[in-house]
User: Which sequence fits this backbone?
């Protein structure tokens, strides 16, 4: 590696550079750049003629212009303007003993992750995501329990739930080492319209 010194006193590798990279190229003048007009650029390219990259967002945030593309709104929420509570699960045994969890209309995913609709923390025998699903069917006013995609089993009144099972008031649901009592709000006597 041969080092060379330029007129300004900078050292550079002569094998890699023909002139001093710190000084730039003599006589080269780069004027201000101008954006191309939108009509001149081919489809799918940005103003500089390159394929555009997605914008950077903070982790867990969705760009405002994409929120409506990604978020699915439930039928009941669309009709009445809110995502109403249709029932509860109450932890009667386990790490979060005494805590209640709101059940919303349609599908409610149960797991340990904060991304779940019903997040049960402190019980590592519950799958992070999709351990079980509780759904409320607004047309009939019925609740159902389904096993999720997680490793662990789900029990309803001490019976393993392999397929979908209809829930009745005060049924006991077991996920991991946690027992939950089901308390409906909607059903025979009341439904959100």
Assistant:
């Amino acid at each position: 590696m041969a080092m060379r010194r330029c007129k300004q006193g900078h050292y550079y590798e002569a094998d890699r550079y023909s002139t001093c990279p710190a000084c730039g190229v003599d006589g080269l003048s780069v004027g201000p750049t101008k954006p191309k007009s939108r009509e001149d650029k081919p489809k799918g390219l940005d103003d500089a003629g390159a394929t555009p990259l997605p914008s950077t967002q903070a982790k867990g945030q969705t760009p405002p212009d994409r929120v409506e593309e990604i978020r699915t709104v439930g039928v009941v929420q669309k009709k009445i303007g809110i995502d109403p509570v249709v029932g509860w699960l109450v932890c009667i045994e386990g790490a979060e003993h005494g805590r209640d969890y709101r059940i919303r209309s349609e599908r409610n995913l149960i797991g340990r992750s904060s991304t779940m609709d019903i997040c049960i923390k402190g019980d590592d025998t519950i799958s992070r995501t999709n351990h079980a699903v509780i759904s409320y069917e607004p047309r009939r006013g019925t609740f159902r329990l389904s096993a999720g995609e997680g490793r662990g089993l789900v029990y309803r009144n001490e019976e393993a739930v392999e397929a979908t099972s209809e829930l009745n008031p005060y049924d006991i649901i077991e996920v991991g080492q946690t027992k939950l009592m089901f308390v409906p709000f909607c059903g025979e006597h009341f439904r959100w319209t």
